[in-house]
Amino acid sequence: MAQPEIKQTIRMQGKYVETLLAEMNTQISGVDSVQRITKRWVMQAQKIVMTMVGEHGDRAHYVTIPRNISTHGISVLHGGFMHTGRKCIISIRSVNGKAESVSGEIVRCRHVRGGVHEIGIRFENAVNPREFFVDTGDDYLFDAEHVDASELNGRVLLVCDSDADKKLIEHLFSESEIQFTFAEDAASGLEQLSAEPDLAFVDDALKDMNGIEFVTEARRRALTTPVVLISQQHDEEMRLAAIGAGAREVVHRPIDPSVILRATAEFLMLSPMLGAGSTTQLDGSADEDSRALFATELIAISEQIKAALAEKDESTLDTHLSRLSSAAGVYGYPDLSTRASGILDKIRNRASVDAVRGQVERLGELCKIRGEEPRRTTPPEQDEAKDAA
């Protein structure tokens, strides 16, 4: 069988490509100035194949140069114009060397220079950007970006015996609606974790237990709250061991306020009043009528998630979580998208349905809450007080 023709449309030497990408990544204009919640990860120099899929199944293959990637899409450089709405498949190499195929749709095409165009592609299903390049440093740990603390609400547990750290974190979220609880040791921390807060920050060097031991015991008790460890060690082996034990991430001292904000935004609900301009919405994103239709779908999804959970139907659960992960952010519900993506990661890494039951139940509740918002008949503060109770 003949090999498919792969067209090379950008004929620039590597150093010129790097210069162009560097210029684009430092521009503060147009679409790049939009405040986003989902972080754009600058990709290491490589080339990827973009396969365009025609209406009748015909395919054309092009070599493109990736600019950046997020959980919901990718931006690539291509030597020609592409119409929005076209289906495509991106072949991208992961950090383990395996080529992965990701389906998507072109949502943006803008001229850059000469024959070079930047193509924006929205993925059908969310991905984990960290699977596609080697990341280093705290800046690469979380997807959230440009976080406004006043737009966050939820319940956070801090397990730490440092009064300075407590005061720092309390001050950092002083303008938010976050409800904090504190514990000074692992025993009381585990007890408070049973109340299922939305997120827990845990000191890696508690008096009665280290961070990995804390997470191990929490998972043994089937407590599924996301746990982020705060460590003095900049040790990749320790980080991998902590994640293997069930932690979501490890951040380091001295505490970087921006990293703590981004970590919190990764797991907590965002305010329903969040403006469209600061979300992951893309060009041609949903208008109010479409949002209302999706809100109705959210109520149905909440019931379908509940039924799949009762049956321990992992396949159906994956389908609904994928739908939320890829679509909720576009319709103005980035918190649902982030939560669904996190649960999907766990399930696809062979976590059992029971292991994520608490998170899935909470997601289902939030789908119902969000779905009922457009036709709200009671004041928002009454619903929020009821949810908090």
The profile of the biggest β sheet is:
6 strands, antiparallel, barrel
The CATH class designation of the largest domain is Mainly Beta
Structurally, the number of domains stands at 3
For the record, the CATH architecture of the largest domain stands as Beta Barrel
List SSEs in N-to-C order: EHEEEEEEEEHEHEHEHEHEHHHHH
CA-based gyration radius: 22 Å
> Which structural category fits the helices and strands?
alpha/beta
Rough shape?
globular
Could you give the order of strands across the largest sheet?
3-4-5-8-7-6
Distance between the termini: 64 Å
Task: Offer a quick outline of the entry.
With 389 residues, the protein is of the alpha/beta class. Helices cover 36% and strands 23% of the residues.
